[in-house]
Amino acid sequence: xxxxxxxxxxxxxxxxxxxxxxxxxxxxxxxxxxxxxxxxxxxxxxxxxxxxxxxxxxxxxxxxxxxxxxxxxxxxxxxxxxxxxxxxxxxxxxxxxxxxxxxxxxxxxxxxxxxxxxxxxxxxxxxxxxxxxxxxxxxxxxxxxxxxxxxxxxxxxxxxxxxxxxxxxxxxxxxxxxxxxxxxxxxxxxxxxxxxxxxxxxxxxxxxxxxxxxxxxxxxxxxxxxxxxxxxxxxxxxxxxxxxxxxxxxxxxxxxxxxxxxxxxxxxxxxxxxxxxxxxxxxxxxxxxxxxxxxxxxxxxxxxxxxxxxxxxxxxxxxxxxxxxxxxxxxxxxxxxxxxxxxxxxxxxxxxxxxxxxxxxxxxxxxxxxxxxxxxxxxxxxxxxxxxxxxxxxxxxxxxxxxxxxxxxxxxxxxxxxxxxxxxxxxxxxxxxxxxxxxxxxxxxxxxxxxxxxxxxxxxxxxxxxxxxxxxxxxxxxxxxxxxxxxxxxxxxxxxxxxxxxxxxxxxxxxxxxxxxxxxxxxxxxxxxxxxxxxxxxxxxxxxxxxxxxxxxxxxxxxxxxxxxxxxxxxxxxxxxxxxxxxxxxxxxxxxxxxxxxxxxxxxxxxxxxxxxxxxxxxxxxx
Length: 623
Fold this sequence. Notes:
Layout: E1 2-9, H1 17-26, E2 35-40, E3 44-50, E4 63-64, E5 70-78, H2 81-90, H3 100-111, E6 121-129, E7 134-139, E8 148-151, E9 155-159, H4 162-165, H5 176-185, E10 199-200, E11 205-210, E12 215-219, H6 234-252, E13 259-262, H7 267-280, E14 285-291, H8 298-307, E15 311-317, H9 322-332, H10 342-354, E16 359-361, H11 366-370, H12 379-387, H13 391-397, H14 400-403, E17 410-411, H15 412-422, H16 428-434, H17 440-454, E18 462-463, H18 465-474, H19 476-490, E19 495-497, H20 503-511, H21 514-517, H22 525-530, H23 537-540, H24 551-556, H25 561-564, H26 566-569, H27 573-578, H28 581-589, H29 591-594, H30 598-614
Parallel strand pairs: 13-14, 13-16, 14-15, 16-19
Antiparallel strand pairs: 1-3, 1-9, 2-3, 4-5, 5-6, 6-7, 7-11, 8-9, 8-10, 11-12, 17-18
Helix pairs in contact: 2-3, 5-17, 6-7, 6-20, 9-10, 10-19, 12-15, 15-17, 16-17, 18-19
């Protein structure tokens, strides 16, 4: 796990690449405190900050091919590097290190850009070709690791950390369209970033950038099969899932440093702990968090820890800690993200590092693969979603509430509208009053709906559950869940691994018919059937709870309401330009209705802190 960056010059514009790369890497020390490395020539400058996980002594980067033609820097892990290394040795390649990065060098010599299809891992890496003067940038299939880039007439620049890009493009302005998206769904969806003209490389894509400035963007992976798998029995589906999960965990536990797991007490993280415990042969280090005044799953996490004999550590998170924790989080947040799970994820990551762990496995992705969200069963979301929409949108839905048919699905346009409203908890009626320009809130919904339509493959009239899950996989999982995990673990130099998002597991799960996946009409029906007898029965029947902090409790106890009041008492100039500050004040005064607006108020608050810290360069102090 690392932070990488680079600059490819198209002409001699007088830029000192060494100075800029040094500044860019200095902003990523938290991503890689163990080592740094650089490569420079007339055309290119490359830099890396390394978190040493594999081949601690010999894995220094960049790594060059024997003839010096190819230069590689890697952020992430290639889990099947041992198997690939053995294959390449049989082909005559000679290795100087035991690192996974060197595997990429030799594999690129063999297959060029097609090498990425052989890799199993979470990664963002680059290959510079000194002969053809071409730069390749690859991002893993699912989007676990980030990669940002920008291009102008003079150069192309990239980095793992968005604020590092600002060192070479300091005048990039905030994108108002991205701000609207952020308010609507709590994050900025790819390929956009919060800054104009700085982009995210899409998951499953790679870029080829030539010395003359030509840039080619190619997709190398996507899910192709939806519900086409036809196995003889339910046991065959279960056996395949168990085999794939076991193999994923087996290769993802590879590490030369201490490995642990996050354990929420839910089915996904408990599954990881169970299978890892079986393979490891010693107690797994497990870390769990509970919330004072909120949903507390610590007893269930402890139940799993005791069943599998883990070395277990618990953390109770108190609202009174927020004033000291939130500024730390904002400091490491290169782009606004307002999912309040940032708080427990950050604090649990700090705990793991304090206990000597450098790598954690977790259950991220289980909901998107096995069907864990209530929104995949339309009746559970429709009324809530409809009530959050302004009048003209409610009219367009008509009598939908009474005519939903789960088996036949919903019309695409109607369900897109519902899904957009339900996915973030945002109250769009509140947003409709918030903006000075009344059309902005409609632009938020319209953009989410257009993205929804884009990610419904081969489906023009009706939407299956797998299509809803695919939308989440490509949007919410990448933009919110995985981004949050990367930012908050890397903030404390901790590597977070996600065994359920092995691309083989992903491909298999989406090939399973919905009738099998939602066995007996239940969320995660197939996964629960697979784990029957493996996990305690109490865990199997727990309702979905997530890992969010009890923001309503924190608010009612005045632990964060006073923070929100700063939105009115000391409004951001950016907000004064676009928003009706009086609407925020009115929302804060109506205590009995206040909770309805919490997601949006929290988004406004986090953006305000982020803007003051990273744009206005103010120190963040919360009383």
